[in-house]
């Protein structure tokens, strides 16, 4: 059944929205994004303690809420609205999902409760120079020494890699791909914060040199598990993009109602009105794409998940970017200033479009799947 | 409309089976079958009993259609004979028609015996429908109508026309209109084909010279024509913006088929990559059009309809144009040839041909998608003003008697 949101869903949305409006106004976003850490630890812990959001998709047995992709989409959409600065995507979505899909029971039992409580930030160190989320391209190597492992290589574009307490590292071994746990403070790990286009989402380069690691993958096809992990993350990110796009539409229409030029509100001119109408159409389409993907993901059919997530990431990326770009245009000179939030959305939009593969990349995958 | 009653799906399926027992489409002609369907209340289940319905929720119609599709496939083939009557005439008649006309006319609309057309647009009033100039003057029990209508789909085969005419030129434009049912065989009605970009004449010009319409054929009250017309227009836009109900269906299915059969393997790698990406984009948007319509339906059901319902008409028109443009790009030089030819045709229904000729025909026909039933520019105004709450453009004709407003043609 498509789009069957419940009253509980609506309640979740309202609760999260209130929390974020309270804790993450624009001034806070600007303050956090200027710091190297990139987020406020008190708010992070409050979010875990009061709201349990870091454990949203973590099973109840491991201290989480045991909810699924639909609830996660709702939370992400709200975070996207306010450009919430936190390692949520990296820790509560990407790393948690990677553990759920690919890790041994032991590793899950050890790490998931700590992710859920907000005690640790975890992230997945997957991509390298090419930034494509493709196991084939992994060159980082893990070597076994007796009972322990060590890792050599460079991971790039690691989400919140500079602050993560635990890195889940994808590396090659003699017997194929492996997933490894590396402590953030491990010896032989050098982490460099990248000067990112989008200040509200931090990326790091992580260099491993004989860095001690623990192998945590379970039996099964790790490449497939990582593919599902990324697909689930795309679903969540698409919802975040919808939230951002919707906020851009609201900013634009609010401004167009009040800004007077030539004796009229600019929203009464068709040139502006029609831009807003086109944005509305695209935002509604993006919403359909993201919600559809979330419900498909919740059903657990892998085929549907891969198709719907590729569609959603591709469309939501472009819709968000166009909405953010038009927001600058509609605000005129003011939209081009540092003081106005339009550039924050614009940067987030383009960065999110490039993260986890750009729209063309996902359309190519989709075309393969559909036989186009 | 009568308050909704409830009926189980199973009970409704029973009724369809009873209909099929009584008049199976393999045994009777289409008119007879569809007449029986109407009499059983299975034409529009949300219409009142006796008027082709059972007073059920509109979503229950899916149960009927599903059952008929399974057991009487052929019934669906002729559904498009009377699109305007079924899609727009019936709901307008139900809402505003004189009681004694409702039952006989609704039944003949549904069977397809009476084709309907819509006489709104004029040469001087296209998007500005309410600015129209066709005059109706009261003469005893009749109205005498003079004027010219245009873009009238199927007027050449229509029995009834939904006519909007000016009955008072001394008040502002929206207040001086009245809505009539016009018997298209009346003396003084002249229908001339209007040949289009495709070479065919699905549209017409309709000239009205001293045409008499009995007063009892007025829908709604005198001067309330605009209110009635809104019902017709809203139903038109809903009908025009739903996309395909099937995953991957509709125009995108034709494009993908063309691509697979005629394009894909003969192209250079670069060209192939570019077109493939474009087709995949169009595929995604087709899916999202369908999913957005589903969302709109879900929102309607839950009683919280949002903006998702209003975007369909605009999105579909613009998307379909791009799909068919891409169809010709896929064909390349083959697109130089137009097999169907520009033979002057007067279609009496819709739907034609294999993927290749359909693509070429639709490449031309789809240009009308963003004009008919409200241009894309008008639709953007509506979205901007009614959904997003943006201020209206200053209107020079606001509050001005219609006769004092400047107009073209």
Could you characterize the architecture of this molecule?
The complex is a heterodimer of chains A (about 375) and B (about 400). Chain A is of the alpha+beta class. Chain A has 11 helices and 9 strands. In chain A, β4 and β5 form a beta hairpin. The relative contact order of chain A is 0.11. A 4-stranded mixed beta sheet of chain B has the order 1-4-5-8. In chain B, a hairpin with a 2-residue loop joins β2 and β3. In chain B, α2 packs across α5, α4 packs antiparallel against α6 and α7 packs antiparallel against α8. The mean pLDDT of chain B is about 90.
Structural class of chain B: alpha+beta
* Helix and strand pattern of chain A: HHHHHHEEEEEEEHEEHHHH
Residue fraction in strands of chain A: 15-25%
Rg of chain B from C-alpha positions? Answer: 23 Å
Biggest β-sheet: strands ordered side by side in the sheet of chain B: 1-4-5-8
What would you call the shape of chain A?
A: globular
Strands of chain B, total number: 8
Please describe the biggest sheet of chain A, giving its number of strands, its sense, and whether it closes into a barrel. 7 strands, mixed
Q: Beta fraction of the residues of chain B?
A: 5-15%
Structural class of chain A, please?
Answer: alpha+beta
Low-confidence stretches of chain B: none
Shape of chain B: globular
Global Rg of chain A: 21 Å
Mean pLDDT of chain A: 96
Please state the oligomeric state of the protein chains shown.
Answer: heterodimer
Characterize the largest beta sheet of chain B: strand count, sense, and whether it forms a barrel. 4 strands, mixed
Helix content of chain A: 40-55%
User: Which series of helices and strands of chain B comes N to C?
Assistant: HHHHHEEEEEEEEHHHHHH
- Mean pLDDT across residues of chain B: 89
Q: How many angstroms separate the termini of chain A?
A: 27 Å
Total helices of chain A: the number is 11
């Amino acid at each position: 059944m498509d789009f069957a949101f419940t009253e509980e869903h609506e309640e979740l949305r309202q609760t999260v929205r209130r929390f974020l409006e309270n804790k993450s106004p624009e001034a806070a976003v600007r303050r956090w994004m200027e710091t190297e850490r990139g987020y406020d630890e008190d708010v992070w812990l409050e979010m875990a303690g009061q709201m349990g959001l870091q454990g949203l998709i973590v099973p109840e047995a491991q201290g989480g809420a045991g909810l699924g992709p639909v609830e996660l989409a709702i939370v992400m959409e709200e975070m996207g609205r306010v450009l919430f600065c936190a390692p949520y995507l990296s820790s509560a979505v990407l790393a948690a999902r990677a553990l759920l899909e690919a890790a041994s029971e032991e590793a899950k039992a050890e790490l998931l409760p700590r992710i859920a409580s907000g005690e640790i930030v975890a992230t997945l160190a997957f991509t390298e120079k090419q930034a494509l989320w493709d196991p084939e391209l992994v060159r980082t190597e893990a070597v076994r020494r007796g009972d322990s492992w060590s890792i050599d290589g460079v991971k790039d574009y690691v989400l919140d890699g500079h602050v993560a307490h635990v890195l889940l590292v994808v590396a090659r071994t003699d017997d194929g791909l492996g997933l490894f746990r590396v402590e953030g403070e491990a010896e032989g790990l050098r982490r460099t914060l990248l000067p990112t286009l989008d200040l509200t989402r931090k990326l790091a380069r992580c260099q491993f040199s004989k860095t001690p690691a623990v192998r945590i993958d379970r039996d099964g096809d790790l490449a497939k598990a990582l593919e599902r992990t990324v697909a689930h993350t795309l679903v969540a990110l698409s919802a975040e993009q919808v939230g951002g796009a919707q906020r851009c539409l609201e900013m634009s229409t609010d401004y167009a109602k009040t800004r007077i030029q030539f004796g009229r509100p600019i929203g009464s001119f068709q040139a502006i009105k029609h831009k807003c109408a086109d944005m509305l159409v695209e935002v509604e389409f993006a919403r359909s794409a993201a919600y559809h993907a979330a419900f498909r993901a919740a059903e657990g059919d892998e085929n549907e998940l891969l198709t719907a997530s590729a569609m959603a990431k591709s469309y939501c990326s472009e819709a968000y970017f166009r909405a953010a770009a038009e927001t600058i245009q509609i605000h005129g000179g003011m939209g081009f200033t540092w003081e106005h939030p339009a550039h924050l959305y614009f940067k987030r939009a383009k960065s999110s479009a490039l993260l986890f593969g750009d729209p063309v990349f996902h359309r190519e995958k989709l075309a393969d799947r559909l036989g186009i | 409309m009568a308050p909704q009653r409830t009926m189980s799906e199973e009970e409704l399926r029973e009724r369809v089976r009873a209909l099929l027992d009584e008049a199976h489409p393999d045994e009777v002609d289409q008119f007879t079958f569809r007449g029986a369907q109407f009499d059983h209340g299975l034409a529009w289940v949300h219409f009142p009993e006796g008027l082709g319905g059972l007073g059920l929720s509109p979503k229950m119609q899916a149960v009927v259609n599903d059952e008929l599709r399974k057991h009487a496939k052929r019934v669906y083939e002729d559904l498009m004979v009377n699109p305007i009557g079924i899609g727009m005439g019936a709901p307008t008649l139900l809402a505003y028609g004189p009681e004694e006309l409702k039952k006989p006319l609704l039944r003949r609309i549904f069977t397809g015996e009476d084709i309907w057309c819509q006489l709104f647009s004029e040469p001087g009033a296209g998007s500005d429908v309410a600015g129209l100039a066709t005059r109706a003057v009261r003469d005893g029990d009749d109205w005498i109508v003079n004027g010219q209508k245009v873009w009238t789909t199927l007027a050449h085969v229509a029995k009834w026309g939904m006519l909007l005419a000016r009955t008072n030129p001394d008040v502002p434009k929206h207040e001086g209109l009245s809505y009539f049912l016009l018997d298209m065989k009346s003396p003084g009605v002249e229908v001339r084909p209007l040949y289009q970009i495709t070479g065919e004449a699905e549209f017409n010009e309709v000239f009205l010279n001293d045409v008499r319409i009995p007063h009892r054929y007025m829908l709604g009250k005198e001067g309330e024509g605009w209110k009635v017309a809104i019902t017709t227009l809203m139903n038109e836009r809903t009908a025009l913006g739903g996309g395909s109900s099937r995953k991957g269906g509709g125009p995108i299915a034709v494009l993908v088929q063309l691509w697979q059969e005629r394009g894909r393997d003969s192209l250079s790698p670069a060209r192939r990559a570019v077109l493939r990406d474009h087709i995949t984009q169009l595929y995604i948007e087709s899916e999202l059009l369908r999913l957005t319509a589903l969302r709109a339906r879900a929102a309607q059901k839950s009683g919280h309809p949002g903006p998702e319902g209003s975007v369909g008409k605009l999105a579909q028109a613009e998307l379909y144009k791009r799909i068919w443009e891409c169809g010709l790009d896929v064909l390349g030089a083959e697109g130089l040839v137009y097999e169907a030819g520009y033979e002057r045709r007067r279609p009496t229904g819709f739907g034609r041909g294999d993927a290749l000729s359909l693509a070429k025909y639709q490449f031309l026909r789809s240009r009308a998608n963003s004009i008919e039933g409200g241009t894309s520019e008008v639709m953007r105004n509506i979205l901007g003003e009614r959904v997003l709450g943006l201020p209206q453009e200053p209107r020079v004709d606001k509050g001005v008697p219609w006769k004092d407003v400047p107009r073209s043609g």
